[in-house]
Design brief:
Layout (H helix, E strand, L loop, with lengths): L3 E8 L10 H16 L8 E5 L10 H8 L7 E4 L5 H14 L5 E9 L5 H9 L14 H16 L3 H15 L13 H6 L2 E3 L2 E2 L8 E10 H6 L6 E10 L14 H14 L8 E3 L5 H10 L8 H6 L16 H5 L6 H14 L12 E8 L4 E8 L1
Parallel strand pairs: 2-3, 2-4, 9-10
Antiparallel strand pairs: 1-7, 1-8, 4-7, 5-6, 8-11, 10-11
């Protein structure tokens, strides 16, 4: 197999109401990635544009964005797997480069969620479920994850305080991430006394919508050398899985089966085990999602997640640092851009360029990106 690496990464600031267009939003991440890689548009063989189209007013946004960024006449593709769209884009880019179809591929994820109202956004999120058999009953994302939270807490005897500790950690690092929406610390008592959203989840247990873009540039080893890239971050393993859309078709509610299956596949491809991961980005759309990820990825035994966060083992100085950029809970969650943002964080960590968020000497990093309520799952393992 040809070696495939990431040669450039970029991200816009994640904000609550971006004033420009989607093409201008994408440009912010694109320009940072191009400067990072120190290449020109002629060096990009193809692009994969990623978003959740139900939030986009522009039909076929891939063509509009590629034109604006000067990435024509190279081919451009569009990828969508809900919240995991841009990590799906990474897998597609890897496949095109590894197969020899292209020497380099750019993955751009974006979402301008402020183009529609909060009520419209919630309605579209509900349509992520089966519109014939499930979403007509009014289920929304917080309610779905609240079901998992209730099942998890009841099964393992964990406490709501354990979920709140995850939010406190997110806020700790969100304060030092200049790209994050929320840059204020929160105390455990604040989280516990916050208004309920969907029992047992409260306001601070939930991430917020945001506008943002991310960009990842992938190339084979030969192309990277030709371009003078002296520190590519290699893609070591990729795993993906899907689950029944309807929750009635599932038999696991203490974790996400897609994460378990995808991580097993990614570990096997990379030839490593969970205890060899030095730093991780997990999909913490809700605090319970991060808690389940600890166990789904093998960082803790089933039911052992609460002890990890109680002992601060997922803090920067801990055994397995997780979401030391603040995660979705602090950064915000612009759906199509989220996976690329997670990938960017791990790339910077492995290069030793993460600033105040830097973990000590990481060699292997992991990205866990979930689409919908465990409908899609991608796990990407990167190494320096």
């Amino acid at each position: 197999m040809a070696k495939v690496g990431i040669i450039g990464v970029g991200q816009s600031a994640f904000v609550r109401g971006y004033a420009g267009s989607i093409r201008e939003l994408a440009f912010e991440a694109f320009s940072e990635a191009m400067q990072d890689a120190a290449i020109e548009t002629k060096d990009v063989g193809a692009t994969v544009i990623c978003s959740a189209p139900e939030y986009d007013k522009q039909r076929s946004p891939a063509g509009v964005i590629a034109e604006y960024l000067g990435l024509t006449p190279q081919p451009t593709f569009y990828a969508e797997t809900l919240c995991s769209s841009s990590s799906t884009g990474l897998k597609l880019a890897y496949a095109m480069v590894e197969s020899g179809l292209h020497d380099s591929v750019m993955v751009i994820g974006f979402q301008k969620m402020s183009e529609i109202t909060s009520a419209e956004s919630q309605e579209r999120m509900g349509r992520g479920a089966d519109i014939q058999w499930e979403s007509p009953f009014g289920t929304m994302m917080p309610a779905y994850y609240a079901m998992y939270a209730s099942a998890y807490l009841n099964h393992y005897g964990a406490k709501e305080e354990d979920l709140a500790r995850i939010r406190v950690k997110a806020a700790t690092y969100g304060q030092i991430n200049e790209k994050a929406v929320y840059r204020k610390g929160v105390e455990l008592e604040q989280c516990m006394n916050a208004d309920p959203v969907a029992k047992p989840l409260k306001v601070f247990d939930c991430c917020a919508n945001a506008d943002g873009a991310s960009c990842v540039i992938v190339a084979n080893e030969k192309k990277a050398k030709e371009l003078g890239i002296d520190k590519p971050v290699w893609i070591l393993g990729l795993g993906s899985a899907s689950n029944p859309v309807n929750l009635a078709g599932r038999d696991l509610f203490n974790g996400l089966a897609v994460a378990r299956m995808a991580s097993k596949e990614a570990y096997a491809m990379a030839g490593i085990s969970a205890d060899q991961v030095d730093v991780a980005e997990v999909h913490d759309c809700f605090t319970i999602a991060e808690m389940m990820a600890y166990e789904d990825l093998g960082f803790a035994e089933p039911g052992g997640g609460p002890e990890l966060i109680r002992a601060k083992e997922t803090y920067k100085e801990g055994k397995i640092p997780v979401n030391v950029d603040g995660g979705l809970l602090s950064k915000g969650h612009p759906i199509g851009a989220t996976g690329g943002s997670q990938i960017r964080t791990i790339v910077l960590q492995l290069r030793g360029e993460a600033g105040e968020m830097q973990v000590k000497d990481p060699e292997i990093g992991l990205v866990h990106n979930i689409g919908g309520v465990g409908l899609y799952g991608n796990v990407s393992i990167l190494g320096r």
